Amino acid sequence: SAASPSAIDDFVSCLLSANIPADQVLTPTSTSFISVLTSSVQNARFATSSSSNATSPACIVAASDVAHVQSAVRCGRRHVIRLRVRSGGHDYEGLSYRSLRSDDVFAVLDLARLRAVRVRAGDATAWVESGATLGELYYSIGKSNPGFAFPGGACPTVGVGGYLSGGGIGLMMRKFGLGADNVLDAMLVNADGDVLDRGRMGEDLFWAIRGGGGESFGVVVSWRIKLSMVPSTVTVFNIAKTVSGDGAAVAALAKWENLILQPFMPELTIRVVLQGNTALFQSLYIGGCGRLAASMDAYFPELGMSRSDCNELTWLRAMAFITTGNITAPPEDMLRRTNNLGTSVKSKSDYVRRAIGATAWTSLFTNWLSRNNNGILILEPHGGVVGAVVPDYATPYPHRAGVLYNVQYGVFWWGDDGVNAARRWLDGVYEEMGPLVSSDPREAFVNYRDLEIGENEIGEDGLTTYESGRRWGERYFMGNFRRLAVVKGRVDPGDYFRNEQSIPPLFQSY
Ligand code: FDA
Q1: CA 191 to ligand 1 centroid distance, Å
Q2: Using a 6 Å cutoff on CB, does residue 159 contact ligand 1?
Q3: Atom of ligand 1 nearest to the CA of 171
Q4: What is the rounded average pLDDT of the residues 158-171?
Q5: What are phi and psi of 38, to 5 degrees?
Q6: Per-residue pLDDT tens for 291-301?
Q7: Atom 36 in ligand 1: which residue has the minimum CA distance?
Q8: The complex's ipTM?
Q9: How far is the CA of 415 from the centre of ligand 1 (A)?
Q10: Which strand ranges, in their side-by-side order, compose the sheet holding 106-110?
């Protein structure tokens, strides 16, 4: 049922009379409402309500304690105010702080203050709260022991909460698996406001929250993660190849995609960023330069890598190098919580299961990349542990066996000008890639959320319909979608936690 006109007032009173300090409950008349609302927005597309046809929150709850999260859920249920849970605010469609439903009355439950990281060196684990950024996590891990690491993504401002909820791909997954593959336990506030650990939530729900996408199952307040063991230094290098002249970029790309599924050094990840007429090969090797350079010479001579390209750094400094491209970047750079209100971005994603070959790479550069410097493709190789060791049903992330790489397409623009050209470019390159990428379904990555592949509809019973969810859900989760929906039906049958792409409840067995 819809919220009554006084529902927000009642919700706020409920929060205040529970346990939440008044300065942590903000309404649009509060002086800091806008600054808190935009504090982790990463996309100018969503920075102002006029630039998007979206509904803004009626309230922000800046939780600093698990009890605040419980109160927000209980008061929200009582007064029919839904919650948009926000950890790092990087959602590609801004769903952690805006709604595309005009009749939605909702509050943002902001977890940015719940950001503690507690490393337990004795058993090489850590508890990390969802509001921590990946950079804060890396910093705490690296400072506690340079031999510890975590297989997370390249961008340090991404929130742990959303990252792990969507599975989490990164530069060490060929060796250690997805971020979510390394979650051992979690604390979740469910739709009744109860706190559940792994034992209390049961294995089905624990399975679902490790990759089934954020928002759907409750609020994960913290995660217990397994730390990975790395040598005291690892090796990073960047090599740029261009398409002009000798066509070095195309030859290197054609070789690169054929190496991924070979039993070739899971310790090595080479992701590729394509922009303009350049392919930047960004590499992380969990080991020393000597063995790496010899192997590259033998297996991948097209890259032309030599010992002089190597930077041997602690893992923490290596992550700072990957972020900044600067070998002297201090690890403290990883702690910056910068946001981005200047640039508009739209992204889409694909998975490639068959090498696309030199002709297609040439065409991509000629017809698309070299014609728009504001368009970018990021290729993340799979294989290794993420592809071979963990079955497709072990977690909701289904893009494992046989996947060569994920493709992320992004296009940038500034102000209102340029949006049409940007969209034409993105739609064009996505269409051209269609025949070359996975099909039936055309797979997509939930962490690169794209509302253009489908949005939920609400049925007459007030619940998200399963059929509307299948359109986008089977592209993100393939055969795992149904199991996610069954778990949702069991743990949140009233569909309290929902957004335009949340898992719909299904009241059947799988
Ligand atoms: P945000 O707070 O916006 O939440 C995302 C979604 O999860 C929302 O639906 C939200 O409601 C829900 N949610 C958030 N916290 C929750 C919680 N505690 N409990 C339940 N639900 C919660 N991904 C990747 O896998 N590898 C990568 O290398 C990168 N790199 C990258 C770079 C940049 C610049 C961006 C903008 C994004 C990425 N991503 C990525 C994608 C990123 O992992 C994805 O957008 C995450 O959802 C972001 O998590 P946040 O907590 O920042 O987002």
Answers
A1: 21
A2: yes
A3: 28
A4: 98
A5: -90, 0
A6: 999 999 999 99
A7: 90
A8: 0.99
A9: 24
A10: 25-26, 59-62, 106-110, 82-86
